[in-house]
Amino acid sequence: MRQRGVALLTALIVVAITSAIATAIFFETGLLLRRSEGGIARERAMLLAGAVEAAAARILREELDTGTVPVHPAQRWSTSLGPIEIEHAGIVTGRVVDLQGRFNLNSLRTATGETDPVALEVLTRLLGVLEIDPKWAPRIADWIDADDIPSIAGAEDDFYTSRKPSYRPPNRPITSTTELMLVPDFDVASYARLAPHVSALPRDTKINLCSASAALLDALSDERQWVGAEQFLARNRERECFPRRDVFRAGFGDVAAFAQLDQALGLGERSWYFQLQTEAVIGTSRFSLYSLLRYESAPPSPPGMRVLLRQTAE
User: Which pLDDT does position 33 carry in this prediction?
Assistant: First the structure.
């Protein structure tokens, strides 16, 4: 009787071990299948995004090859692509944004590395228009300038190294506006409000008045004219560039003030830097691709769009 009990117990143990091994194999197999499906979905998404990128680059090149014609949102490049459903592949959408219609954070730094006072004043006004505490303007400027001497209400090495964990400001031009999230206590809500109005481009890149946001136009002119009247601004831009540079300059009572603004930030009607925001949905998976595009026309290379940077998100 005792031997039968031992045999039964042994059999139960063997069954339990076998079941555990089978469960583990099934789980691992499921994970491998899921990873394989995810990898295939990602490859499909990148192929779709690449097709949208090529289409957007072609449209931009056709618009920008026109020479000196203003670049504005009424042109084809500003029209969203999709959503386009591709059989057995997925759904893809794309949207081109003119990055020169934003305040270039790197304009806060002069060619010699100091903080540009005119650019700093414009950023201060922009923060005020967006109802963000203006104290962040000098801190952002100190993050970018070349020295380690804090400006009034700014912050440099001493402030950052006292943090837990400690770190140091780069004191160089930034390559992504997301670096603002490294400025201590600059919260996500403030960044979300500011991000659509700022860019991180080469220091001498001009602002395109034809596509500048309402908040930026108000910050440049130091008048509350366009915020709250975005629909009116959009209607003025349905067919052409608005405001034209000459019209914008005429709104300044002080000619010297406009000249200083133009020298510090550069005010024009054309753009060379664009961001393509592509989103692909493959099954239940969603992928996003952000492409930084630049129009180049310097000989001997033929005019065309160059992809400077790609960033993905899932």
Answer: 46
